[in-house]
Write a structure and sequence with these properties.
Number of domains: 1
Order of helices and strands: H
Number of strands: 0
Mean pLDDT: 85
Number of helices: 1
Structural class: mainly alpha
Largest sheet: none
Distance between the termini: 51 Å
Strand content: under 5%
Radius of gyration: 15 Å
Helix content: over 70%
Amino acid sequence: MSKKRRRNSAEQIIKKLRDADAMLWRGTVRQVAHI
């Protein structure tokens, strides 16, 4: 059970990090495009 929970939490964290990176990447690309 603990292993599954750890895996699930890790997957959620990875997904959040990926989403955050995508948002930051889009923001930087937009800023560079405007500049």
